[in-house]
Amino acid sequence: MKAYTKTIKGHRRPLTPLTRPTRLVIAIQYALLSLSVAGYGHAQETSLESAKKFQTSVPAAESNAESSATESSRSGEKASKGNAPSTQENAQQGENPESAKPSETVLPTLVIKDKGPTPGYVTSRTLTGTKTDTPLIEIPQSISVINRNELDMRGVNLNFTEALRYVPGVVPDQFGFNGTGFEYVSMRGFNVQTTANFRDNLSQTATGLYFAAFITDPYSLERVDVLRGPTAVMFGRGDAGGIVNRITKLPTATPIREVEIQYGNFDRKRIAGDFGLANEDGTLMFRLVTSALDTDTQVRFPNTGGDRAQIRRFYIAPSLTWRPTDRTSITLFGDILNNRSEAAAFYLGAPDGTPTNTLLGDPSYTRYSTDQASVSYRLEHHFNDTWTARQNFRFQRLDGRFRDMDPLGFAENDLSGTMPRSAFATAERLDQTALDTHVQARISTGPLSHTVLTGIDWTRTEATLKYFAATAPTPSINVFNPIYPQPIPTPDFLAVDGIQKIDQVGFYVQDQIKFQNWILTLSGRHDRVSNNTNEFLSQTTFANKDAAYTGRAGLTYLFSNGIAPYASYSQSFLPQPGLDRSSDGRPFDATRASQYEVGVKYQPPGTRSLFTAALFELTKTNVLVPDLRAGGVLTQTGEIRSRGAEVEARTQLFRGMNFIGAFTYNDVKVTESFDGFAGKMPIRVPNLTTSGWLDYDLGTLNVSWLRGFGIGGGVRYVGRVFNDDANTSITPSFTLFDAVVRYDHGPWRFYINANNIFNEKYYSASSGGNFFRGTERMVIGTLKLRF
């Protein structure tokens, strides 16, 4: 369902001056960060001497090295093992480095030794769960990590959602193959396409007023963290289902030189490069990541001799890290992504409801074009072994131009298959500014060990929309004998012109308390939100304000054999863009959610394995649902309850053999509805999904001619989904198989990836007369050179 709102005249006007509350928020944030100045002067006296001793080598494949010597969260471990903590980007990956013995100077040095790429698919630590470097086994919530090894092995390099295919609780690609780049994702039964979108611990959840939404190039990522369940306490704008945190490739002290070329079916051509360098003492590091894609797609227009929808995409991202002292790190980052795509795999149904091979759009008219860019910085300063301050900032902008057509429905009793259409076009701009500042302290009170975090974050989104309709009639199309291309009139009637601004300020505090083998995680947050919407055409202004307290409490017990049972309660609070056009057109109220979860995590000591299982019950209120009394527009009165079980295994079965397994059972019910659908299951939500991936390094067999070869394969099952709110129509389940063959020879690595290797023909769902055809077989060869 498309939901849009309008805003005042001036689609491209600059941002308005900051209000007093906004100035106050920024002042508070910089006051928190300015504490670092106190420690900077003392650290600077020994910066040159320390910098010469500070030598870091991080594997290229894990460039945000899994390290944080003084941020270890092991029970009872003291920070005295090393006085020079690593930076936040190094902590993202999570493995503890070896620390050098303290020197005799005031500030000791830290040496992180190069251990080569971390094998397997298991990552042990993350910042995503708590904003502190914490082992996954200590986080009282379901979380999965997809590292760079897995992204490369499974050939994730077109749409970001491909990364989530083997994660429990997550259903990507509910609308089948998507060439437009939109990242359709469902988590624990809830649509989280934009609400779960995070990057480097900052919200990227801005939603435009029609199509506009930020997308991600998979090559830009070091890893992906998937935190399931309400997450608003630490991240503010996380929705009920959870968040997907994209971790960007950033500079490392190890030189990186990588070039990748790719070719596949549908005439797919792609080239990418990843280059990094650092000075001798590791105080200045630079990285440049870029990729370019040119491909046809499986979306073929009938009766054209094979005309296919195309995708053109370009991405570039420079970044720079400066360490003026061994206690201070400053990282600057920017990126540009241009995306040009045509029709998605949405096929019209016949008058009797059966699918056809006819696309609604037209090859000469349908276009989805976006230009997005961002600039960000990250500051981190360690005062001593106890206190650390961080600040993260990002501003990003998206300009979108979209052209497509809406179906108007078959005439009553007309079996000829003639579908009337209406052409439209939009010009959209989406700006988002995010600023997060927090202070961390590691202290002890008697037998209790505390990791305390307190901070403030601010997010502003500004979305503008100009929606044009065509005054001239749009040619209809016959679903049984379509004609392409047809002359489509240029939309020339301005039907919507508006702007919507949402400001959110959140204050949060967290304490991770350890007592012997017990870990108690307590978090609290207070949010204040203002939503201002102006409709230029109707000269109407809407404004509302909201505030909420949210919390999280979790208890974990660590057994010495690696078993960690836990129980938790968490809440979320999320402002929703758009207008309730079924009533007086006021902005939607924020949605809220709460969840109970119990589970167990098992990490056998000394192994590269992590097993997790969880049971949960999740309720979300103020859900946006279609109101049939008002023509099906979105209204806000719904409530949905989701119960389920999730199991995940990430393990090295034995040397050279890695396995990923995931299982999800989800019982999702509508508990409140305008239209009498209480007790029904929401559309496009499968009740059962399961998957498994296994790969093997044949070189471990010690057969000379097999050295360098590896094979792998996976299977994915997605259960049936309902196509309508009354649950009278279903799309059946489907099972897909994937495979990979690789060969390593010196600096060269060659992959052949095949997804849906048996070319299973299936639909992911059907809704409103559209059938969403699934992704067909993709066979891609990738040649990578590291030098």
- The number of domains is 1
* CATH class group: Mainly Beta
Helix content: under 10%
CATH architectural group: Beta Barrel
Distance between the termini: 49 Å
Residue windows where pLDDT falls under 50 for at least 5 positions? 1-21, 34-107, 109-117, 628-632
Q: What's the CATH superfamily, by name?
A: TonB-dependent receptor, beta-barrel domain
CATH topology, which one? Maltoporin, Chain A
Number of strands: 39
Describe the structure.
The chain has 787 residues and is mainly beta. The radius of gyration is 26 Å and the shape is globular. The two termini are 49 Å apart. It has a single domain, classed as Maltoporin, Chain A (Beta Barrel).
Task: Put the structure in a nutshell.
It is built from six helices and 39 strands. The radius of gyration is 26 Å and the shape is globular. The strands form six sheets. It has a 22-stranded antiparallel barrel.
Layout of strands and helices, then pairs:
Elements: H1 20-33, H2 35-45, H3 47-53, H4 88-91, E1 125-126, E2 134-135, E3 143-147, H5 148-153, E4 170-172, E5 185-187, E6 190-191, E7 197-199, E8 202-203, E9 221-228, H6 232-235, E10 242-248, E11 256-264, E12 268-278, E13 284-300, E14 308-325, E15 328-341, E16 346-349, E17 355-359, E18 367-382, E19 387-407, E20 418-445, E21 448-469, E22 474-478, E23 493-515, E24 518-535, E25 540-557, E26 563-574, E27 591-602, E28 609-627, E29 633-654, E30 657-672, E31 688-697, E32 709-718, E33 721-722, E34 730-731, E35 734-745, E36 748-755, E37 763-767, E38 770-773, E39 778-786
Parallel strand pairs: 7-10
Antiparallel strand pairs: 1-2, 3-9, 4-5, 5-6, 7-8, 9-10, 11-12, 11-39, 12-13, 13-14, 14-15, 15-18, 16-17, 16-38, 18-19, 19-20, 20-21, 20-22, 21-23, 23-24, 24-25, 25-26, 26-27, 27-28, 28-29, 29-30, 30-31, 31-32, 32-35, 33-34, 35-36, 36-39, 37-38
